[in-house]
Fold Calcineurin-like phosphoesterase.
Amino acid sequence: MRKSKFFIAPLAGAIAVFVFLAWAFSQHGTLGLFRVNGEFHQYFIGAGVLGLVMLVLSGLYLWKRSRHNPRFPTLLTVFVSILSLFSMVVPSAAFVYTGDVFAAGIGDTPPQLLIADGSGSSGIPNLAVCFNTRSPTKNTLEWGLAGGALARSQESAASTSHVFMLRDLVPDSRYEYRVNGGAPAYFNSLPAGGKIRFAVGSDAHFGAADASRQASDAMLAQIADPANGYGMFFALGDLVEYGFTRGQWQEAFDSMASASATIPTRYLPGNHDTLFAGFGNFQDYCYPPGMDLQSGSPLWYRVDAGNVHFLCLDIEWSAESITVAQEAWLRAQLESIPAGDWKIVLCHGFFYASGSVSEGWPWYDNQETISRLGPLFEEFNVDLVFSGHAHQLELLRHAGVTYAVCGAFGGAPDEPRSYTSPASVWYENGSYGFADVSIDGNACTLTIRDPNGAPLKTISVVKG
């Protein structure tokens, strides 16, 4: 390149940096990543400074050129050349990696039984048998009451994403389903009233080098065991370490299917799940197109089981993802639920919690989420709020609402707390575990269990 046109190199570097930053901040969870994660905050600031420096260097070369004196010291020219190359290559490589540009599809995943938004004609959730295939295929599903005649559904076109809806289930009944005439899988539908039991866990972080796959698999075995009688399982986000890496979703579903093939399961979005291109992957794999939506969106929705109502929210880093639309939807749902019914909120990001300052961010009593939704919980007498995000186990109570932090489903435990929330009732750090919840009439028993099913703490919640 002639030296008189050398301004093009730093200009190209500046453009590459700013295009990457514009793309990154257009993604679903990047604002929260920038605000909360100190390491990435520095990366983004550094990238912005680099882009400005390249822009200034380009302008300086143009200024010199306008004065008919385009010559610069050789060492400076070499330095700018290297910096220009760096600023073009690194953002481009980051985009290719985090944007999942050349990644292959997720591959073949086992069938899972996912809970859909709303409920069927009998007042219990509709379900969907969902799975993926590496290549486009056409599949069939046979399903119905166990031991009875099975209905048969067949896909009309070949696809890599497969969704078969199971609507209007008979309450408290045993069902079976078969994919492509294979071995039967059995599950129990929920009762329309009376006792229900469900499990809650968060932050498995499949794909992370420091996550405990052994602990996750042990808890999944507890949830899947028919003797334990779980009717549903809610996974509250950060299922994978990097949502833009499809191989981690493959690993997660291969493991999760040990429970989710027979226990109706609902995945909620976490900040790691939706990183960059992970947002699209989460929607494609955890609430795939073809699943029914009755009240909400693929990110927030309501699940009804008789007089027990689950309000699943999109709260990832902090309050950034609590949109005006989501908050209005939540208020409308709470207003529509009879006062005597159970109201249970589930999300990834926490409200009240003990913790410590990490990378400049206080990982405890989140005043942003508390101020946004706490008054709604108290106004409408929400009974239980489950969350993760903090890798610990904790039970808290504030203004009549019971909060449970269940972020210990396999991800590396957080450091011990340096701040204790005034709302804290019980706290456990360094252990893995999940929540076991039984509701019978106006009484609820909430037990935190370790990976082998042993109880760590039990509390009671009484309705009314």
DSSP finds nine helices and 22 strands in the chain.
